[in-house]
Amino acid sequence: MKAHMIPVSALLLAGCAANSAPVATAPPPPPIATPAEAAKPPVALQYLYGSPEAAIAVRATNARIADYGVARIKQRPKDSVVLAPGATMDAPAFEPCGDKPFAAVFDADETLIWNLGPMRYFAEQGIAFDPKIWDAWEKTGAGKAAAMPGTVEMLGKLRAAGITVIANTNRSAANAKGSEGTLRAAGLGDFKHGETLFLMGDDAGGSSKDGRRATIAAKYCVIMLAGDQLGDFSQQFNDKDLPAAQRMALATSPAAATLWDKGWFLFPNPVYGPWEKLGWDDAFPSDKKWEPSQ
Amino acid sequence: MKAHMIPVSALLLAGCAANSAPVATAPPPPPIATPAEAAKPPVALQYLYGSPEAAIAVRATNARIADYGVARIKQRPKDSVVLAPGATMDAPAFEPCGDKPFAAVFDADETLIWNLGPMRYFAEQGIAFDPKIWDAWEKTGAGKAAAMPGTVEMLGKLRAAGITVIANTNRSAANAKGSEGTLRAAGLGDFKHGETLFLMGDDAGGSSKDGRRATIAAKYCVIMLAGDQLGDFSQQFNDKDLPAAQRMALATSPAAATLWDKGWFLFPNPVYGPWEKLGWDDAFPSDKKWEPSQ
Questions:
Q1: Could you point out which of A265, A291, B72, B275 has its C-alpha 20 to 30 Å from the C-alpha of A258?
Q2: CATH number of the domain enclosing B221
Q3: What's the pLDDT band for B11 if we cut at 50, 70, 90?
Q4: Cβ separation B31–A20 shorter than 8 A
Q5: Helices (DSSP H) in A73-205: which residue ranges?
Q6: Which residue from A14, A55, A232 is facing B252, i.e. has the nearest CB?
Q7: What predicted TM-score, i.e. pTM, was given to this entire model?
């Protein structure tokens, strides 16, 4: 569709409204947009948090997860979908299931819940992500995050089938009570730190979720992983030395393709993520450059 | 995931880099960002066009479309998935199939192809969507758009199954040759204006695709519609007087839910669309407002 397309720079201009006034006659603009300046949220936030188009995509992913989970446990899978320690996408190997009970492992932020409170605050204030503000959010956010569309129903179906629902998130272990409360207040039921809620600081792995995944897979047959970023599936994708083109190749390789939508489920999140590192030539192949002739 | 989250205002700042320099000592900033100022594309463009996360989502949608199409024609459906004239989501009724041949109907922009050429140009120049530039793009873009991930394979499977592939787009009928060439150069095969390519200006409906859908459904059993915006499914969703909350309710109603992923397929596009109209309170429910305590 293009008829209603007034794109791209609506997004650029959202934060620049005051600065795009004639500067000669206006007072010096503040360095960063303030709430009064941005009449609307940036387009990625409008899309994700406000559009039926995104709500439909999220609901459809949740429906696939529920259907997959309920069907998959009837097959009594031999292996978890958690890569074994040291295994990579080039030579995948998985934790064995044995007769362990079934679990489904979810990231939390922008996977189970939408962080409406701080996302609006950051955008309205025109400030960058601030770890101190985020820390306050983890502590005090209960009631101000929302379950994503269809997530309550999806979790209900998994739990009714006897699947343990676990969250593995990079929220801080120091704020466990706050995050438990946030998930509960969003209608997602009880998550308990150390049992069904795994947090950054639980082990020495820092922001890598691999160690926590191994801990979970030692106790459970993990039938699915779900998240909004590739690090929710394997830390291999987060290697700082991995060039963008190789990250793309690895994530869309035949080995990975056998997992997407079949054990590994990805939610849309255009608002924040590792893609923020991408430069012009990463996002746009140079052979596709175009400009109108004069 | 949040460990790498430096979000939201990366997007605001992308177009504001020069203006966020100290204004007292810098020369008056230009009203709009110029290429040298934006070191990176806005986050929505980074995500859609550059991230494996988006590529995986698009590939998965294309895989579902191919699987659905090949399976669906074996069931010899009684009805098209095109709403009959006058029918609405509240009281849906569909065009009958009879013994018409099968067709799959796609939007073009951000559904079959990614418009990498003008999207980079708009963003680098920091200019709003410009209909004159877009007109030039429709005429001269062949080779500078890319087939979306998995789209070539998906179309190949549908055509091999005997399904006619049709594009219904709001590109201009006056630029039919350019759009035919753009689709062909992207590796998507032949689309012929009036037969397998329907354009704005083909009838008196303007940007509404309903009339063109009716024309197609008169000749074909339309087993699926695919697009990135709700107008690719029914013009009802584009009613200018439809409040955002009602558009959401209509698109996620039980009647619509029976169609999503089962005849109606939606591709992610956080870059542009009707959601650009949404204000703060449309995208963020007021009961979810939050700020850090001082």
A1: B72
A2: 3.40.50.1000
A3: very low
A4: yes
A5: 116-125, 131-140, 151-160, 176-185
A6: A55
A7: 0.88
